[in-house]
Amino acid sequence: MINQLKLDNFSRNYLVISSDMHQRYTTMIEKISKFLNIPIENILNNPDIKYISLPIIDKGGKYVESVSNNDLLLNHYGLIDKIDSNRIGNEISIEQIREVISFTQISAHKNKKIVILNDAAKLNKEASSALLKTLEEVSSNCSFIILCNSHTDVYETIRSRCQLIYLDTTKKLNSYSNFAEYFYSNNEFLKSYSDEYNINNTIENTTSEIEGLLSKTADPIETSAKWHKVGTKLIVEVLHNYIVFIVRNSISLNFQENDHNKNLKKLSDIYNKIPFIKKNISLNINHKYILNNISIELAS
């Protein structure tokens, strides 16, 4: 739990692990706010805080700054890839870690310095190596708080220099009146953006299209083309949650019993492939190809 994260006059490094990107960030930032006795909105402007996440890159290819946690999440769901006219990079670079190194070499304005590294899975190889070297050599009273989905998101050599804090807890088996309610329970951050990005319609349309593919009343290539316009990341997130919702609640899809069983098995097989699908998306493998494969498998 977050109480294990101690901020004092000793240098300690933490790997804060949770699949809920919004919750892990807000929990951590509230902890820092209490320690520094400053409002949450002022934390990232504090001279003793260094925040690193995906880079914002201008038209000339120059690193401008790191994306905020809100923009990181919007990018995670595929809802934005630019901020103003600047694009959001795909990985945390060694240039950003060099800024961290310079930051740790300067004395704290008060008693302590803190580095926040948001979404460590986005570190490229050079940045990971530079981070490891920094963790080994930093001599000032500086604590690193590294946020990630899983302990496997960072090299073992980095993990070994951090205390691991797991924030995820087993959720109660609540009942939900519909899929949208279940989806938002797992993706609460998106509630605030449902109108701006038409997410309610996306949820409704996507579930209808999934059922159409399963019942063989929808064309997989046409469906894939629709999904590509919506955005691959959000479609995969909806599919992921929908499969869990169907299996967990044993909801009838209005098929004959044998067909229903076959579709549950098919959905379970797709569910097992979702981590690889998300990995391929992060590697920028052709999104049309990915969506075509998903829709064809649903309709097979």
- The total domain count is 2
- For this structure, the CATH topology of the largest domain is Rossmann fold
Q: Give me the count of strands.
A: 9
Average of pLDDT: 90
Task: State the end-to-end distance.
Answer: 44 Å
Tell me the helix content.
Answer: 40-55%
CATH superfamily of the largest domain: P-loop containing nucleotide triphosphate hydrolases
- Give the class-level CATH name of the largest domain: Alpha Beta
Number of helices: 11
Largest sheet at a glance? 5 strands, parallel
Give the overall shape. Answer: elongated
User: Which sequence of SSEs, written as H and E, runs from N to C?
Assistant: EHEEEHEEHEHEHEHHHHHH
Question: What would you say this structure looks like, in words?
Answer:
It is a single chain. The model is unreliable at 251-258 (pLDDT under 50). The protein contains eleven helices and nine strands. The longest helix has 26 residues, at 257-282. Helix content is 48%, strand content 12%. The protein has a five-stranded parallel sheet, sandwiched between helices. A four-stranded antiparallel sheet has the order 4-3-6-5, with no helix packed on it. A hairpin with a 5-residue loop joins β3 (55-57) and β4. The protein has two domains: 2-166, Rossmann fold; 179-299, no CATH class. The protein has helices spanning 21-36, 69-76, 94-104, 125-137, 156-159, 179-186, 199-214, 220-230, 232-249, 257-282, 287-299, and strands at residues 14-17, 49-52, 55-57, 63-66, 82-83, 86-88, 113-118, 142-148, 163-166. With 300 residues, it is of the alpha/beta class.
